[in-house]
Design a protein that fits this description.
Layout: H1 2-20, E1 26-29, E2 34-35, H2 37-45, E3 49-54, H3 59-76, E4 80-88, H4 92-99, H5 105-111, H6 118-131, E5 136-140, H7 143-152, H8 180-188, H9 196-214, E6 221-227, H10 237-244, E7 250-258, E8 274-279
Parallel strand pairs: 3-6, 3-7, 4-5, 4-6, 7-8
Antiparallel strand pairs: 1-2, 1-8
Length: about 290
């Protein structure tokens, strides 16, 4: 009897201790089972392409991006390539000049279209590439051309200057409006913008996939930082990557927020190979 009472007390203490802990994040695998960072790192080391899907204003995700990049570098060294949605392809020359110390941080801020949270969230990644002589790819389509698709349709890209076309995916681009990622965008907007809205998203995905493949070769690992919605459920960027090379080993990381992080919501199961779940109350970075 005393043994049972003692066991009950231990269980109660464990539960109370768990509830008292303030967990910053929890990792889950694709099936919604809890996972460890070591498991995530092991899978990332085996990948050709790592699509790290973030929530743009979530500091835990940005911290993990840098930590994973450091750990992959220890394994891959010069065979690691970095790239991001947050830098547009027409800024690649200026980024290269910054990486090569040909221009200063001050000049970079004038020449490149940087996000508001660049200093806290993306500069550390760019500086890691600079310190370790790694390539950093500006993978996204210039925003003006994505906006052109939204306002006037994909066909309007045919009319842009021929030199400007080097900053976007080859035309004509494939588009599957039946993919969940694009159907969800259309539905969430209530039809506003018509099919041009999901197409403006798709041209970003296609362009990022294009520049990832352009800068990847066998034996290298390319880690790409993007909004989670660009790679959730193995669609978006990954769909375009696999259209060009079905044999690519693409590893995805997704991000979500919940009121409690001990169990992954049903809606997020299958979102990515590994899912970072953080509390909704987590401090946000500047957008």
């Amino acid at each position: 009897m005393k043994t049972k009472i003692f066991a009950t007390i231990l269980i109660a203490i464990s539960i109370l201790s768990f509830k008292a802990d303030k967990i910053a994040y929890q990792l889950f695998d694709i099936n919604g089972k809890t996972a460890t960072y070591e498991q995530l790192l092991k899978s990332a080391k085996e990948a050709d392409i790592v699509l790290f899907g973030e929530l743009h204003d979530n500091p835990i995700g940005h911290w993990l991006q840098l930590e994973l990049t450091k750990d992959l570098f220890e394994f891959k060294k010069s065979n690691l390539v970095l790239g991001a949605e947050m830098f547009e392809a027409d800024d690649q020359i200026a980024i290269n000049e910054y990486l090569q110390s040909k221009i200063t941080d001050k000049t970079l801020k004038v020449e490149v279209k940087l996000w508001n949270n660049y200093e806290t969230d993306y500069k550390p990644l760019l500086n890691f590439a600079k310190a370790n002589h790694l390539n950093f790819v500006a993978a996204n389509i210039p925003r003006r051309y994505a906006n052109l698709v939204y306002s006037q349709g994909l066909e309007k890209l045919d009319s842009i200057d021929s030199d400007a076309k080097k900053w976007i995916c080859p035309l004509p681009m494939k588009y599957d409006g039946e993919l969940k990622c694009y159907k969800d965008i259309f539905a969430s907007a209530g039809g506003h913008g018509g099919q041009n809205l999901p197409k403006s998203q798709a041209v970003k995905d296609a362009t990022m996939a294009y520049f990832i493949l352009k800068n990847w070769s066998k034996g290298k690992t390319f880690i790409h930082y993007n909004g989670s919605y660009h790679s959730n459920f193995h669609q978006g960027i990954e769909w375009y990557l696999k259209q060009e090379n079905p044999k690519l080993k693409v590893f995805t990381i997704g991000s979500t927020e919940q009121s409690a992080v001990d169990t992954l919501s049903k809606e997020s199961i299958g979102m990515a190979d590994f899912i970072i779940c953080t509390p909704e109350a987590m401090t946000k970075t500047q957008q």
